[in-house]
């Protein structure tokens, strides 16, 4: 592995934390040089380096995260007017190591930045630079541990075995040859980093509502814990971590359906933009958001590029909504009007009227929100025998959307696997296009069942992605995943 990208210089991003205003979470002013002799000499520099890590995460997740989470699944189909070899390879399950999306380099940049922070803040504390600033010290380090855990968790779900790097590189041209560790070691590293972030601890909230959603908090950490435990089928642990989120007053479901509303969204579909649920995606930082990646073109020239992947077909994005997904929505389910238009254009993240591509292509990418955790918890409850508790949570999400709730009689006698299918269908309706679907199918072992009729997926070894040929050439100790050898 070679961390070769010029973004290594984000180490010295000198950031000002904005005290007010939507989408002003991190204001970053990059410099063009780095010298270890004069950096790490005062605590604001460590905070600036932390903001640099979030800046690198912006680059890693835009728009690759939605391609990883949706491009191989059943929610999307190719827009024939925007055909590209990469998106075609994803949807037809013809991955190869030459595709740009198979590179993990951007995530290792965040890992390296986290390693720099962890090493140097410890030295700074030993020098007395954090005297009287213990809360700042714990906050910076806790977030660095959480960011590293997040990146390793994200990468291992895609590539399986990983090169575990816990020491920083200070030279962008430094060559490091490290073999991949098996997933047991990767999971142990993730668990240790999560626990270190919790012990630090990361803060419960920050001084602004937007920062509380765009930086790692205890809520975001518990969401990551829940996701991690569900991936590993550790359901009791997932129930414990998810319960901490459900009892956290920082988070509440946004409003969408109201039985007393006289608005007919079939007549005036643009009015749905006024709902809190719709604005969760178009404006960001909702009460439901637990952790999201903050983009703002006007202030920092950062873009999520979601419009290149999704959007009204007039913008010619990569994908449009699949008929298979559209068929899952009933006529009363308002989420269908949020998610896509009558031409199968995916408009979930964009205003239904008045959207300006030239100035607003900076919609945030939501990593975790309350509905996601509620439905993961429903899965865990089902797996541990509490079907009624699981379906109560599913009905909470359905009622919010205006969909008919399940009665006890409607699911009486269903097996654990059949209940899981109901929950997964609800996750699909609720979280479609948010980069969750592929991981849900793999996590629950249903990827072949769902995808084989669509693209021929037939082997569990094919769940993993190939490792970029570029990465293998740079590091001869890397071995290619077996399916692609």
From TrEMBL:
<dbReference type="Pfam" id="PF07980">
    <property type="entry name" value="SusD_RagB"/>
</dbReference>
<protein>
    <submittedName>
        <fullName>Starch-binding associating with outer membrane</fullName>
    </submittedName>
</protein>
<feature type="domain" description="RagB/SusD">
    <location>
        <begin position="326"/>
        <end position="484"/>
    </location>
</feature>
<keyword id="KW-0472">Membrane</keyword>
<dbReference type="InterPro" id="IPR012944">
    <property type="entry name" value="SusD_RagB_dom"/>
</dbReference>
<feature type="domain" description="SusD-like N-terminal">
    <location>
        <begin position="72"/>
        <end position="223"/>
    </location>
</feature>
<feature type="signal peptide">
    <location>
        <begin position="1"/>
        <end position="20"/>
    </location>
</feature>
<dbReference type="InterPro" id="IPR011990">
    <property type="entry name" value="TPR-like_helical_dom_sf"/>
</dbReference>
<keyword id="KW-0732">Signal</keyword>
<dbReference type="InterPro" id="IPR033985">
    <property type="entry name" value="SusD-like_N"/>
</dbReference>
<comment type="similarity">
    <text>Belongs to the SusD family.</text>
</comment>
<keyword id="KW-0998">Cell outer membrane</keyword>
<dbReference type="GO" id="GO:0009279">
    <property type="term" value="C:cell outer membrane"/>
</dbReference>
<dbReference type="Pfam" id="PF14322">
    <property type="entry name" value="SusD-like_3"/>
</dbReference>
């Amino acid at each position: 592995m070679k961390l070769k990208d010029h973004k290594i210089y984000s180490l010295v991003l000198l950031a000002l934390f904005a005290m007010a205003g939507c989408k002003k979470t991190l204001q970053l002013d990059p410099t063009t040089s780095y010298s270890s002799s004069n950096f790490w000499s005062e605590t604001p520099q460590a905070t600036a380096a932390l903001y640099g890590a979030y800046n690198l995460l912006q680059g890693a997740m835009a728009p690759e995260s939605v391609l990883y989470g949706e491009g191989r699944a059943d929610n999307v189909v190719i827009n024939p007017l925007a055909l590209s070899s990469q998106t075609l390879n994803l949807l037809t399950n013809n991955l190869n190591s030459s595709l740009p999306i198979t590179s993990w380099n951007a995530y290792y940049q965040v890992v390296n930045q986290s390693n720099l922070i962890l090493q140097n803040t410890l030295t700074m504390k030993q020098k007395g630079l954090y005297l009287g600033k213990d809360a700042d010290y714990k906050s910076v380090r806790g977030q660095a541990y959480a960011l590293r855990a997040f990146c390793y968790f994200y990468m291992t779900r895609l590539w399986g075995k990983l090169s575990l790097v816990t020491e920083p590189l200070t030279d962008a041209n430094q060559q490091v040859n490290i073999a991949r560790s098996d997933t047991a070691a990767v999971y142990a590293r993730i668990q240790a980093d999560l626990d270190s972030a919790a012990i630090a601890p990361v803060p419960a909230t920050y001084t602004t509502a937007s920062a509380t959603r765009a930086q790692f908090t205890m809520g975001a950490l518990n969401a990551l814990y829940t996701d991690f435990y569900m991936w590993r089928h550790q359901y009791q642990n997932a129930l414990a971590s998810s319960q901490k989120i459900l009892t956290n007053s920082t988070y509440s479901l946004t409003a969408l359906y109201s039985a007393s509303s006289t608005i007919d969204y079939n007549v005036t579909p643009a009015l749905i933009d006024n709902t809190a649920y719709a604005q969760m995606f178009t404006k960001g930082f909702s009460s439901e958001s637990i952790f999201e990646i903050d983009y703002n073109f006007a202030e920092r020239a950062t873009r999520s590029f979601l419009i290149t992947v999704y959007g009204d077909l007039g913008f010619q994005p990569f994908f449009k909504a699949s008929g298979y997904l559209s068929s899952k929505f009933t006529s009363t389910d308002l989420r269908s009007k949020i998610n896509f238009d009558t031409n199968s254009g995916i408009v979930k993240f964009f205003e239904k009227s008045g959207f300006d591509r030239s100035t607003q292509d900076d919609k945030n990418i939501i990593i975790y929100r309350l509905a996601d955790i509620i439905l993961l918890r429903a899965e865990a409850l089902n797996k541990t025998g509490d079907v009624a508790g699981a379906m109560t949570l599913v009905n909470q999400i359905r009622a919010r959307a205006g969909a008919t709730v399940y009665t006890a009689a409607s699911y009486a006698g269903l097996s654990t696997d059949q209940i899981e299918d109901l929950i997964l269908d609800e996750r699909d309706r609720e979280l479609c296009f948010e980069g969750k679907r592929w991981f849900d199918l793999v996590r629950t072992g249903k990827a072949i069942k769902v995808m084989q009729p669509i693209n021929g997926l037939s082997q569990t070894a094919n769940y993993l992605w190939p490792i970029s040929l570029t990465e293998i050439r740079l590091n001869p100790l890397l071995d290619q995943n077996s399916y692609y050898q």
